[in-house]
Amino acid sequence: MSTTTNVQNLIVNVFRPQYEYDTTSNFYRVRLDLSNVDSIYTNSVTTRDFAVGDTAGNVYVGSNAGNSYTDIRGCSNTTTLGQYAGNFISNVSNSVYLGYRAGLAAVGANAVIAIGANAVGGGSSNIYIGNSTGGTGSNNIFLGHNIAPGPGVSDRLYIGHDLSTVILAGDLSENWIGINTTQKYTPLNKLDVSGYTYILGGLGINASPLTNTLNVNGDMRVEDGYGFMTFDHNGSTSNTEVTIQSYTPGKTALFDVSGTVSATEGLYSLRGTATSVPSGGTQTIAPLRAGMVMIAVTDTPVTNTLYDTRLAFVLDTTTPIVQSLASNISGTLIQYTGSNIEVSNGGVGTASFAYSVTYFPMP
User: Fold this and answer.
1) Alpha carbons 5 and 95: distance in angstroms, whole number
2) Rounded to two decimals, what is the model's pTM?
């Protein structure tokens, strides 16, 4: 047989044209059947339509990418692109793996997007972008290289470069965000920030900033490690109360104001009610402190039939020099025992007494 005949036989067996009649356009369409060709080597290919995939909707592009189209291994609607991308996966559905060895040997994954060399492609409903990034949990979003917190981690947001340099973290199950930290400091927090924070403009908490640098609607606490200051709403009196307290035993917190302080309803250090004081009994209401101390007491709710006001100069917190400012009783409603100020019921039956104490400390 001639060489030409052999070539002609080869062409007929390899390049097998097929003719299909198009009943709509009324002409034959030519198809080229290359199903018996294992591989094609060429410098370039130009085509208008290039369909790749198996009967389960999987598309594998790249050397050793995915599985054999004849060995679906329970996978469906999964796309892999890159050398060894999605190689030897099983029971994976609705997922995308892009990059060298991305999603390699993933098992049982669903709705996973893994982009990057060696990106892990396990779990379900995950988005992993970065080299060697990913895990096997669910509902995760990882962005950055080498973010791989280990198996079973779910509902997490990590943005950074490996877990030691995460600049933004989140717990998606609790709507929590951490800036420069992956730690949630208290269960109620929705935002934790580690480090200094600079805000250009205004900050509103439970309110719009309006024209303020800071606008807070609600109770507020400020702490420096040595003491704290709180702004609280007293529900029983409908008053806003400011409390300043030192953590150091024996030390009082100072409120230093440069300028004039105006209080339309007056100033006091502490106030309250001594309840159910028996006839002839006493009840401690406040400590003595060095400096000037002003005390006012009246019985309640007997419409202020008894009242007593005192001004005391206290040098050593145990021996006050007392001056009565005003009183409508022959005895006293106010007395001192040791370093305490007490309400003394001189015999009006069991009663309650309202009191107010104001300190003017020694310089």
Assistant:
1) 50
2) 0.64
